[in-house]
Amino acid sequence: MRIIKSAVLLICFLCAINSIAQKKAALPHGMVFGDKPKGIAPVSATKIEALMGQKIRQTTAIRGKIINVTKEKGGWFMMDAGAGKTIDAHFANYNVTLPKAIAGRIVIIEGVAQRQLIADDLQHFAGDTVTGSKQHKTKVNPKQRITFEVRGLMVDK
C-alpha cells in the first residue's frame, strides 16, 4: 500500500513539474513577433527620451521590460521607461497577436519612436486643437510622452 501511495505521489509531482515547464517554454529566449529586430544596436528604454533629444520621430531599437499587454490583437503593450514613465507601443502590422504571458519579460523592439505633441507647445499642426478655456493650459502627461510603433519584437529574457 505504501508503494502505491509513493508511486501516485511521484506521478503527481512529475505532472506538476511538466506543466510548469510547459508554461515557461511558451515564450523562450529568442522568440520573435513580427519582423526580427536587426541592424540597429538596442538602446535601454530608460535612455530613449534623452537619445531622441529634440527629434519628433526616430527609427531605433529599444531593450526594456514589458509592464502589461493592453490588447493582444495588434500587439498593444506598455513598456517601462524608468522613473515611473511608460512607453505605449503597438505593432505596425495589426495581424500580430501578442500573448499576455509576455508581461514581465525583457524584450528588444525595433521600430519608430515618436514624441507626443500638442498645440499648446505652439506647434499648431501637432494634431491636437485645444480651444477655449483649456487653450495654453493643456499639458502632455509627463509619464507617457513617447509612443512606439513596433515592426519587430524579440524576447530577450
Element-level helix/strand string: HEEHEEEEE
Beta-strand content: 25-35%
Question: From the 3D coordinates, which CATH architecture would you assign?
Answer: Beta Barrel
Question: Helices and strands: which structural class?
Answer: alpha+beta
The number of helical segments is: 2
**Rg from Cα:** 21 Å
Write out the CATH superfamily name.
Nucleic acid-binding proteins
Largest sheet: 5 strands, mixed, barrel
Indicate the CATH class.
Answer: Mainly Beta
Percent range of helical residues: 10-25%
Regarding quaternary structure, what we see is single chain
- Could you say how many structural domains there are in total? 1
Explain this structure.
The protein has 157 residues and is an alpha+beta fold. The chain has a single domain (30-155), classed as Beta Barrel (OB fold (Dihydrolipoamide Acetyltransferase, E2P)), CATH 2.40.50.140. It contains 2 helices and 7 strands, in the order H-E-E-H-E-E-E-E-E. The chain has helices spanning 2-24, 48-52; strands at 32-34, 43-44, 57-71, 76-80, 86-91, 106-115, 146-155. The chain has a 5-stranded mixed barrel with strand order 3-4-5-7-6. The chain is elongated and about 75 Å long. The model is unreliable at 21-25 (pLDDT under 50).
Give descriptors for this structure.
single chain; 157 residues; alpha+beta; OB fold (Dihydrolipoamide Acetyltransferase, E2P); 5-stranded mixed beta barrel; elongated
